[in-house]
């Protein structure tokens, strides 16, 4: 019996050793192609290392930046989109995109911003219809770690930076100087804002009126800050009402692009060209016909593409942890050497067009 058990034990040991040997061999055989595949993958990654490095930021992240505007589809924001497109072309580590309501509505902007927070975007740039309405949701975004940068909202609290194309008081004063010259520095005039909650519009008109009182005492303000709701039809209708109430009206300052278009249309229809001087914020692609007809005396504006570029460049710098300070170059005409007041960034991009000069502007 002992002899039998000895034979059985020897056989078990031989089988075990053989199995171990086969396993080691299988592992070695399996490891060879795996090593070859790993090497091939490493070689492929090495070949693509340059574009791969360019495709991400220094911390290996591709940033998503949402641009929340007042109203999608307008000529102004179509032009601003070009600034986003240029950023996307120049920087492989950024994906900029534009969102906004179909009509200028602060409550709709809040809903869109809530959705962007839920999506977990890295930064939001916003042109608020109402600063007060957007403040709480901007705070919520920042608490979620999202960089928030505003435009046309100097003094907004819950943002990392606000980007302005220029000093708002200087812009408003300049509009008044143009209107005063057109009116011969005398007569009745009125002012408008897109919304009473539109921060920049209010600053422009307040500065304009202050300039009039200081420099043009023979001019008389009859109605201040007519709310034209950033809407062409509303601007048109309210101007007609204004002229019926003040038939001696000689001038008007208009804040929004759509409002300016509406006033120009009303002046054409009422055949008041040359009788009422109108200065408004509007790009030439929208105001050109009214400048040619004399319904609009002049328009003032800034390049929306430049603003779009500067907003996203500022967001990218902030995301990368870089300091934005006096003299920083944001990479676009009008923003090559910014000035600052607290967290407000000021460019120097004030443009104006008349019937004689509007051909200089391709937008």
Task: Describe, in plain words, how this protein is organized in 3D.
The chain is an alpha/beta fold and 363 residues long. Helix content is 50%, strand content 18%. It has helices at 2-47, 49-54, 75-90, 106-119, 131-143, 168-183, 199-215, 232-245, 257-270, 284-293, 304-319; strands at residues 63-68, 94-99, 123-126, 147-151, 161-164, 187-193, 219-227, 249-254, 277-281, 298-301, 339-341, 344-346, 351-353. The strands form two sheets. It has a seven-stranded mixed sheet with strand order 2-1-3-4-5-12-11, with helices on both faces. The radius of gyration is 31 Å and the shape is elongated. It starts with a helix and ends in a 10-residue tail after the last strand.
Q: Radius of gyration in whole Å, from Cα?
A: 31 Å
How many β strands by DSSP?
13
The residue-averaged pLDDT reads 87
Strand content: 15-25%
Order of helices and strands: HHEHEHEHEEHEHEHEHEHEHEEE
Quaternary state of the chains: single chain
Structural class: alpha/beta
The biggest sheet, with number of strands, parallel, antiparallel or mixed sense and barrel status, is: 7 strands, mixed
Largest sheet: spatial strand order: 2-1-3-4-5-12-11
Helix count, DSSP H or I runs of 4 or more residues:
11
Low-confidence stretches: 1-57
Apparent shape: elongated
Helical fraction equals: 40-55%
- What is the first-to-last residue Cα distance? 105 Å
